[in-house]
Amino acid sequence: MDVRLLLLVSFLSFGAANEVFGSAAAGAQLCKKYPTSTYCDSEVNSCKTCHSTSPALNLYGEDIRVHLGGPVDTASEAAMVSIEAADSDGDGVTNLDELLKKGAPGNAAIKPSAAVDLVYDPFLALKRLKAIYCGQSLTYDLAQKLAATADPKALLHAELTACLASAYWKDEALARLADKKIQPLAAVGYNGNVVIADFRWDYRLFTYIMSNDRDARDLLAAQYHVDESGKRVEGRQGRGQLPQIFGSRIVIAGGQPLVPERRAGMITTQWFLSFYTMFAPLPRNTASQAYREYLGMDIAKGEGLQPIPNEPRDVDARNVKQPACAVCHSTLDPLSYAFSTYSGIETSVLNILENNSGTYNAGREPWEAQGYLMSKPVKSLLEWADQARNSDPFKQNIARMMFRQAMSRDALPHEQEEFDAMWKSMPADMYSINKLVHRLIDTKAFGGRRP
Amino acid sequence: MKARRRALLLILPVFALLSASCNQRPKWTGFGRSSGAAVPETSSNSIPVASETGDVGSSEPGLDLVWKRYRAFEDGLVTGLALNKATFCQELGKQSCIDKVHLTFLGGNDPFEAGLYERAQTPTSITAVAVDRVVLYACSQRLEMDRVAASAAVVFKYFPLSGTPTSDQLKLQATDLYHRFLARDPEAAEITVIQSLSNKGLAADKLALMMCYSIGTSAENILL
Lengths: 451, 224
Description:
The complex is a heterodimer of chains A (451) and B (224).
Chain A: H1 3-18, H2 24-33, H3 43-46, H4 59-67, H5 72-82, H6 95-100, E1 119-120, H7 122-134, H8 140-148, H9 152-164, H10 167-182, E2 194-195, H11 200-209, E3 225-226, E4 232-233, E5 250-251, H12 270-277, H13 284-295, H14 323-336, H15 349-354, E6 371-373, E7 376-378, H16 381-389, H17 392-407, H18 416-424, H19 433-441, H20 444-447, E8 448-449
Parallel strand pairs in A: 2-5
Antiparallel strand pairs in A: 1-8, 3-4, 6-7
Chain B: H1 2-24, H2 70-80, E1 90-91, E2 95-96, H3 97-101, H4 125-149, H5 167-182, H6 188-195, H7 204-216, H8 219-222
Antiparallel strand pairs in B: 1-2
Helix pairs in contact in B: 1-6, 1-7, 2-5, 4-7, 5-7
């Protein structure tokens, strides 16, 4: 395609999508009107009723757009009502029936299903759990043992317990779960050409917290770290490599220099702060990564938008007040203020020698106490993290992460009840990932098959 | 011409075995298998088409499958065929098939060197090729080890690899391979197809390799 034509199409598409893009109010209106509809279980999911991948609209979202009689924030409910009898995705079910009976009005592949009557198959569950949590194939001997036992569930859970204590689970499977959160880059990590931080600390902390029945809230709370031997260590941790400013390699930082009382787990490691903040006065990238990976809300996809009045103020003069930017920045900027007193990469000779990347500096920027998370004010990053780790989105995100790790997909509408029970059980289970996984393998989503 | 005929002779029984393991076998009968209960095969018997972080595509309840990814796949071959994990599959004799060369297509990801922070959600067309190649590596290696071991053979021990196997010997070998790869007994239909190969005049070692390859690459060994 001609490049100019491509640009024109892209521009027009963006313009069209932008008319209804990112309206948190529209999603809220839909979930208020149809509270039991498939995607109204969480902030993250509610977008999916109208969007395929935000900002792109699905067929139902497109129908809403066509029938809007005014601004999306105020007119969307009327548009929804006006197309209740229509069948936007053409799957033979009206939009209203889809919204009331666990279908999806913009996705022809998801229709209200008749009562799903699956049976739990321990053989299937055992095959899956051995592969997913042990990295092993089921053996004939174990299959025979399962067939002979009077209590298959007990055998499944015993096997799972062994898997979750295995080196495969702790050193490999959990590490792969951390990849997207840490986003390591060998060239700028330990032993890289330009060392900005050592992400091995991040992997160790993540796998430590996610294993052995530890409290998963430590992902956003830990003031400790974990050394190479796997032992929990307190206090500041020295760098593994001496600073180097001249020559073929540059070593800017290493270790964990942040004072423990300013730490909040994975979002205050030297790697996290250096890699995501870099040199930004207002660390929007850092905040959005924390929001995406630990609360499951991706602002780039229009998820978790909760605009704060009078924001964005454009505190760092980035011209984000214009409407197309403000849609997201009215949430993102207040989300970022609490990170602004934590440094990113510090490159002056003195800072390199003192290992100051990823440390706290109250005078760095003046916005720290002006932040908001999920519409509530937060005065510091510690408050931010405390509010985050005790929220429903945190629990949902952890449960979703473990569900996806097992099934390579999200819960289907008929599995939603089981999924909700999983994340709601986390406080009673003291936020143990092991206990969560034990609950997961008991679900029909995991071990169910047709009779 | 001779080579083409030999290739044809090899390909035809492989198709026969593949169709036995993929089409005639009931799907996911689990504990109900002995009672003959079978889940009808449908076009929706598949992994849902969706992004791991995105929307859920089509999948009928109870019919979606889970991909047995690289490590469990590797373990099935290494344990099942009693191979050395470190050396059983090296591309060009240098790079690990599982951890390096075919990692992505077998369901893994390399965040450090390749910068891949997420694994693929579903197998790709290349996955089938990678699975074929790795299983063939494993089966060939076991076959050569057992040929050398002769009477002390570990897997291919039910008939001499230089002779012509009988129908009963084929059944014993196939049953053992089903145990090793799929953790279950073979169905009668599967055995019938395998036994029918006994009068085709095929060399024993070729038959052994074909059985190993066909059962090891069956969908049941890759999708759980």
